[in-house]
Amino acid sequence: MSKNTKPWIGIDLGGTNIQAGLINRTGKILTRYHTKTKVEQGADAVVKRILKLARNVVEEAGLDMQDVAGLGIGAPGTIDRTNGIVQKAVNLRWTNFPLAKRLHQELQIPILLDNDVNVGTWGEYRAGAGQGHDHMLGVFIGTGIGGGLIIDGKIYHGILGTAGELGHAVVEPHASLGRRTLENLASRTSIVNLLTQLIRSNHPSCLPELTGGDLSKIRSKVLAAALDRKDPLTEQVLTEAARYIGISIAGVVTLLSLPCVVIGGGLSAAVGKQWVQRIREAFEEHVFPTDLRSCSIVTSSLGDDAGIIGAALLAQTAAEESPN
Amino acid sequence: MSKNTKPWIGIDLGGTNIQAGLINRTGKILTRYHTKTKVEQGADAVVKRILKLARNVVEEAGLDMQDVAGLGIGAPGTIDRTNGIVQKAVNLRWTNFPLAKRLHQELQIPILLDNDVNVGTWGEYRAGAGQGHDHMLGVFIGTGIGGGLIIDGKIYHGILGTAGELGHAVVEPHASLGRRTLENLASRTSIVNLLTQLIRSNHPSCLPELTGGDLSKIRSKVLAAALDRKDPLTEQVLTEAARYIGISIAGVVTLLSLPCVVIGGGLSAAVGKQWVQRIREAFEEHVFPTDLRSCSIVTSSLGDDAGIIGAALLAQTAAEESPN
Q1: Residue A6 and residue A68 in contact, taking contact as beta carbons nearer than 8 Å
Q2: Which of A226, A208, A206 is nearest to A217 (CA)?
Q3: What percentage of chain B carries pLDDT values higher than 90?
Q4: Which of residues 88-127 of B touch A (CB under 8 A)?
Q5: Is the dihedral of CA B56, B62, B67, B69 positive or negative?
Q6: What's the gap in Å between the CA of A194 and the closest CA on chain B?
Q7: Rounded to an integer, what distance in angstroms lies between the CA atom of residue B138 and that of residue B216?
Q8: Given A169, A243, A250, which is nearest B255 (Cβ)?
Q9: In this complex, do B251 and A251 lie within 8 Å of one another by their Cβ atoms?
Q10: CA-nearest residue of chain B to A260?
Q11: Buried b vs exposed e over B296-318: b needs ≥16 C-beta within 10 Å?
């Protein structure tokens, strides 16, 4: 097996789950495994679980670790890419953890670490809905709202490596603190909080019925079920969230004159195309100049796999750019 | 005089005035002239006035046109840089006007045309307050609010060439149309409109006295005079505008993880450092992550000269990058 055709391991490390795949050079998943992260067991235990998944996907393909070109991994939080360190990841309860070094010690293959949202954006750019657009924004809507930027065919990191964070930009300047940013107003967390509050103050909704009366059980799929039943409260709250997202995207596309935005994440996957259409409508109403309405606002085509595919393809690109 | 030490002509073409300078390679103004644009006389007359200024600045330096390396010009509106065409400039009443070609026919020297705000941003980056920051945002606050982006030491244009337009991003999603964008809420035009409206509905202010009762005479310097007299209405309206600007800048710095923002334009020059300090306070309150509070928010050091200096230095850089 010659070096430049070897597959790569891609890992998506989240606060709840770890996903792993063995990925070929065109972004196809050859084998895959996943497990719970179990953050509470500590960083060493999480590293062991990552290593086990990595070995599983390689063995499942009938290969040895020396048949693999390397490993790419996306982790939440602030990342020092050069040194492969997770600087701060609240979800993982990690501070300055040398993840790449730890993985390299065990696997003896090249390791590339980047932020999970950047990695997902790279997946969509290289093998998903953003293919062909050397300038694009990836927006991932779930528990929070993350964003990644591709500029000139590269992930744009900015000086602190935190670029793309449109979820933390203010969209309601006069709201109280904690209700001003896009993430405060349109993430699944904030949507569920608002719905819970409205239902508790007696706004009618089918959500109590769908959750057996336990509103803490509202997940993306429950919201989708409520939409299917045309629950007016859910529709209203989700429409307002879509409007904020569309306006935020319009601001980024106006600022950067972008040709493509890919929308992914758990919430958008669950609530479907009609919701993304509402995002697009708010985008078109507010983007400047109006010629930029031609910007493609598309849904993720890789879904949950954007992370493992993007991590593997990003590691591959990094190796091609600095071969040694 | 060897080719690579020749000076450049820089032109700043506005809807009201045209400024011209002969600029040396370090951004120093050797000679300068200006005149009224007189848009109403038509494009041919404007071209003649530009040519006259260009010849004036060269003659004043005791040089001939063949001693000049070329000419850079910044124009308002949408620009086709490759072909040197002003595609649409409302201020000039021009549509698809081949400005670079027209200037080249007469002067027989290389011509570079770009958007006026990009050119001003380039001036601040290469010879002004943004020096040393290969990633920066320029914000120019006057009749409107324009923005220019430097990414990786280059002007970032985006696919339609309109990048940087933060004035057209929405900052008040629930306001009525025409009052949603930063420019709608914080440009000199919108500040004057709001003050006029408030004074007409009997809010006390010293502005009627300062303008001899003619509120249409409120300019940046009148606002500065009202601030000097601690006029509460002017202070309140300008403080609110500064807050919108600071929040918008925070959004851009969060998105791009930028190390430097230069604030220029007529309004910021007139109303002074205290006002920029208020912009900085709103910025620091809203930028994410908080480490990005280290981003320099600085006032323009070139002022009105950013355009002519930037135009000349940008033409110089373009020539160095594609010599022929």
Answers
A1: yes
A2: A208
A3: 95
A4: none
A5: negative
A6: 18
A7: 29
A8: A169
A9: yes
A10: B159
A11: ebbbbbbebbbbbbbbbbbbbbb
This complex has an ipTM of 0.94
pLDDT score, position B1: 46
Q: List the beta bridge partners of residue B8.
A: B23, B70
The pLDDT tens digits for B64-123 are 999 999 999 999 999 999 999 999 999 999 999 999 999 999 999 999 999 999 999 999
- Is pLDDT of B3 > 80? no
Looking at residue A135, its amino acid is H
What is the enclosing helix (H) or strand (E) of B263?
A: strand B260-264
DSSP-derived secondary structure for A147-158: EEEEETTEE---
**Which of B62, B39, B79 lies closest to B163, judged by CA?**
B79
Please name the residue that has the structure tokens 């929070």: A144
Environment class of residue B15 by beta-carbon count within 10 Å: exposed (0-12), middle (13-18) or buried (19+)?
middle
Q: Are B255 and A166 in contact (CB under 8 A)?
A: yes
Q: Spell out where B124-225 has E strands.
A: 136-141, 145-151, 154-155
pLDDT of residue A212: 96
Query: What pairing do the DSSP bridges indicate for beta strands A136-141 and A260-264?
Result: parallel
Mutate to test the interface with B, among A256, A260, A283 (most CBs of B within 10 A): A256
Helix (H, G, I), strand (E, B) or coil at A304: helix
The answer to whether the CB atoms of A292 and B162 lie below 8 A apart is yes
Residues of B in Cβ contact (< 8 Å) with A136: none
The two tokens of residue B90 are: 């409302």
For residue B67, which of B108, B37, B16, B120 has the smallest C-alpha distance? B108
B117 vs A contacts (CB less than 8 Å): none
Q: Chain B contacts of A170, Cβ < 8 Å?
A: 171, 247, 250-251, 286
Instruction: Return the HEC string of B304-321.
Output: HHHHHHHHHHHHHHHHHH
Is B173 close to A243, i.e. CB distance below 8 A?
yes
Query: CA–CA separation, A228 vs A237, rounded Å?
Result: 14
CB contact under 8 A, A147 and B255: yes
Q: List Cα–Cα distances, A297 to A77, A224, A287, B298, in angstroms.
A: 26, 21, 12, 35
Chain B from 132 to 191: CB within 8 A of any A CB: 135, 147, 149, 151, 156-166, 168-173, 180-181
B161, B169, B259: residue with CB nearest A255: B169
Asked whether the beta carbons of B300 and B268 are under 8 A apart, the reply is: yes
- Residue B58 CA: distances (Å) to CA of A118, A267, B70, B305: 51, 63, 11, 17
Please report which residue ranges of A88-204 form alpha helices under DSSP H: 99-107, 116-127, 182-186, 188-200
Average pLDDT in the B14-24 region? 96
Taking a contact as any Cβ pair under 8 Å apart, which residues of chain B between 234 and 253 contact chain A? 243-244, 247, 250-252
Q: How far is CA B7 from CA A268, B3, B23, B53, B313, in A?
A: 56, 9, 6, 15, 10
CB contact under 8 A, B257 and A292: no
CA A43 to chain centre: 22
CA angle, A12 then A15 then A20, to 5°: 20
Asked if the C-beta of A289 comes within 8 angstroms of chain B's C-beta atoms, the answer is yes
Q: Distance (Å, rounded) from C-alpha B300 to C-alpha B278?
A: 16
Contact A139, A245 (CB under 8 A): yes
Residue with token string 């770009």: B114
> For residue B273, what pLDDT is reported?
87
Between CA B16 and CA B38 the distance in angstroms is: 7
